[in-house]
Design a protein that fits this description.
alpha+beta, 6-stranded mixed sheet, 9 helices, 14 strands, 28% helix
Amino acid sequence: MTATAGSRPAWRSRWRIWPLLSAPVAWLVFVVLHRVLSGRVWWWQVPELVPPIAFAVVPVLLLAVALPARQARGWIAAVTLASLVLGGGGSGLNLAALWHRPPPAPPDAITVFSWNTFYWGQRPENGAAMPPPTGTPPRDIADFYRYLHDQKADVYLLQEYVYFGQDSKAIRVDDLARLRREFPGYHIAAASELVTVSRFPIVLESGIDLRPWLSEEHDKAIPPDPGLPDFSTVKTLRTDVRVGGDGRDGRDGGDGGDGGDGGDGGKTVSLYNTHINSPVHAFPRGPDPRRLNRTQHERRQANLRALAADVERNPHPILLTGDFNASPAMGILRLLPDRLVDATPVLGSLYPTSWDDRWPLWRIDWAFTTPDVTVHRYELIRSGGLSDHSGQRLVVSTSG
């Protein structure tokens, strides 16, 4: 009787341990599946939307909850540690901020500002289907331009230079005259929904077409948008600018291989202004299953592959920045070329976020450079309700 009575608490304690152990195991399975499937299969789009910080927080919480289970504490600790090691790199934590100290900027450093403008100051009363972010008043275009001027940038890389109508079709924006008035002496390049405004002469501009990187079936499935024909096919604008030298203006009609570093003592720097497709389709709005589709995933891949191919054959110093619609946890970022360096360590935040600007949990706006570009300062600047994205402000210089 004594042995039987003594065995019942042990039997019961084992049953209490299983729920405590099953949660860490389930999370580890999720992390492993995420590592394998993210960015590779379209039907993993919903799990990809988890806030990246969960990959660091969930294992810690599971370990804390399981601590009272003395008999399985070792197993639980091992499982949670494994999930933290496998998933922690996608958490978005910027531990390098604790020790990384960028060098001071030289006198010839340039300031670059990149921003998703949230449909270029569009207002719902203008027949638009895309209102300002929920809970914010319609934007005043003067505030919009004031925000841009406040950045005091040499180059502006701006996304969503487009309106949307009630039929969810892209509408071309024609604000170049206003841009020239606001930024006299600057040079302007525009393609699709992207516009670059540069104090330096533009020697080459090229919209990067995704269609060569789609299967023939899906290439034909992209109908031209009558309001903005290249809206669905061009999501990156490459602009080569002439920095330094005698300031001569001019354009090189080449194919993007060599903007030329001529005898004026200047240097050609390639600036890539990008806006990669969202993991889910913008329309229809709300929790509609049609927003999740294979076509959207394949266009994201094609855009990044087209971008990577152009970067790989470009001999100039490169700064690539914009809205990638990809969090640190999304494996699709592995399609970027290995030669690019992530500028994140220069950010001062341990958990940098850029979206949604009101309640930021995700970072989907990024900056990358080639090794011959040094990032001296890097900030994510809240837009104060002008957009759902924070802006990215960088001070960079080139070497060699």
